Amino acid sequence: MTRQVSQSPLSARQTKHLNKIEIEELDQEIRNLQKNPKSGEPKKGDLTGIHVHKFKAGKKLFLLAYEFDERELLLVSLGPHENFYRDLKRYIR
Q1: Helix (H, G, I), strand (E, B) or coil at 87
Q2: What digits encode the pLDDT tens for the residues 41-87?
């Protein structure tokens, strides 16, 4: 059984700013995460329960923050490393 993918409002807004190549790469990474969600790095402290997966799209490095359970993969945030964790902490509070 594959996990259903859903997006937070923040992730949906961030995805709108991607170009076609970046969206294709993101889709491939999401399919990989559906199969193996533990491949991302689990976070500690304020971000407990969040996993972060790093991937390249073109020449850019992106970070994808997500949560998962047996049925669902929730995409929380997406973006470059600059201020990523700071913005993620603000969103979660």
Answers
A1: helix
A2: 999 999 999 999 999 998 999 999 999 999 999 999 999 999 999 99
Rounded to whole angstroms, the Cα distance separating 53 from 26 reads 11
**Predicted TM-score (pTM) of this structure:** 0.93
CATH number for the domain spanning 25: value is: 3.30.2310.20
Q: State both tokens at 72.
A: 């669902």
For 8, the domain range is: 4-92
Question: Is residue 43 exposed (0-12), middle (13-18) or buried (19+ Cβ within 10 Å)?
Answer: middle
Residue with tokens 């976070």: 43
What is the number of domains present in the chain?
1
